[in-house]
Amino acid sequence: MRSNERLGGEDEFEAAEEAISAAVAARLSIGTAESLTGGKVAAALVAVPGASAVFEGGVVSYSHGVKTRVLGVPAALLERTGAVDPQVAALMAEGAREALGVGIGVSTTGVAGPEPHDGKPVGTVYIGVAGPRGTRTVGLELHGDRDEIRTSTVVAALRELTAYCGLSEISQ
Prior knowledge:
By secondary structure, this protein is α/β, with parallel strands linked by helices. It is built from 6 helices and 6 strands, in the order βαβαβαααβββα.
């Protein structure tokens, strides 16, 4: 698991610009599935001029019900692990890809605080990225207040999206 100390002060807009550029270069459309970030990843992406070339849309899946009904995350998994889990992040990203018909899906799930959730401490975050080369997840241990954790998560998700696009040679 990584910490937000390594994220530095990178601006959300700069990270979003890089993600859009990487997706354009990889010819991959983007969709999001967000829990703790509540749409902030999508908002960062659409702040970039030209984002419409690759960004299709997003799902804010704050509740378990939306994760299950819209993204296809099994209710039994959510009951067993809670939403803050790497497998849930992976399935959310895959679900975004399927539900939105996009080449790459990125997801965020975690605990922004102020209290622990489902036995997970504040700052525990998982990001999922699903695309033509499969699905990967990254875990983060973030520090700060609720807003700082959410902002660090957005930057980290955009970086993961950029990195994944850079690996992809398959267009969709």
